[in-house]
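Our working data are protein records whose layout never changes between entries. The record below serves as our worked example for the rest of this section:
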Amino acid sequence: MKAHTLAIPAMLFAGLCSLTPPAHAYNRDQLNLLRSNVEKWNSMRTAQPELPIDLSKANLEDASLDGANLAEANLSKADLSGASLDRANLRKANLSMAYLKRADLKKADLSEAWMVGANLRDAFLKGARLTAANLSGTNLRWAKLGDTDLQQASLKGANLFATNFEGANLKGTLFTKAVRLGNAVMNDAKVSNNTILPSGEPASRGWAMRHNSRFVEEEPAAPVEFVRPVVAPPVIIPENLPHGAASQLVPSQPAPDVREVEEWNTMRAENPEVRLEMSEEKLGDTRLEGVDLSNANLKQSEFEGADLDKANLAGATLTGVDFTRADMKKANLKGANLEGAVLDRAFLKQADLSGTNLRSANLYGAMLYGANLDGADLTKASLFDANLEKASLKGTNLTGTNLIGINLNGAVISSSTITPSGKPATRSWAVLNNATFTDQ
């Protein structure tokens, strides 16, 4: 993405970034019709073929959408996890950053679709048509793409760990900088001299043989030029906006993609007064190392398996957020609200969690080696089997906390630390847990 400078009024920027229920970007009437009756939806599309379809950020989780006509629809950031889209028409649809985890897309038409950054982990796309589709940066871990047509599609930078391409047509497919192609299943897939490997080199007959694929010699062809979809301005529905906000909305540049960390951080530096409303974001498995999300409202968002090393989440609202197996080494979470958050097996080595609200949080098996938990509130949290070796717990509230299997070797405990019993920690309690005690 080309870097650019944004001049965004605070109210407008908050509105553009908001994913909270009162200000969704999608057209509510369109969403209700689609969810209620696919046959009537398709009749509406036939009767009004020029009508823009705005389902961006819509919640279509587990929806039954088999055969739905979603051609050229704006489904960016939509939640389609577990949805059934068998034989659906998604030709030229905008599915950028859409959440398609475990979705069924058997024999769906996704030709020329814009799917940049979409999460298709465990998705089932057998027999789907993806010719000239842009899947750059997608997560295709464990996705089933057997017998799909991916001619001239772009999978640049995609995660292809254990992706199944058995019998797929990969002639002219771009795998430039794709990750883990060597772990993908390529049995009987068709590749050609126009197929570009992660190294940037064209596929060869020898490469095809080593990967149990079939090689086809073609006339040399230039890669397809992908054009970002033109998105119509959202329809502002005053009753869906906070009181008085509609009068302050004016046209402006959209906010940058948070995954473009450098550009995003530049925007944050230039607009320090802006309050980010980003609840219910789907950012699992994304690379966000060093991202500035300080003071953002990210409640109920999903960061499972995300890379948040050295990220700035200080003061953020992270209630109910899923950080399962996320990498958060040296992340700054100082003063953040993590009540009810899931940090199951999260890697928080040397992270700053001082002053955080971790009440009722799940930290099962979390790595907190050397982390700063001074003044944190872990009331009724679960630290079952967590590693807090050499962590600082001065003034930490552990009332009702599950400490079964915890490693506190070398952790610093103070007289102001509250133990699970609700009583202040003592030197003997620290010694019993192989921790270091201080009166400070």
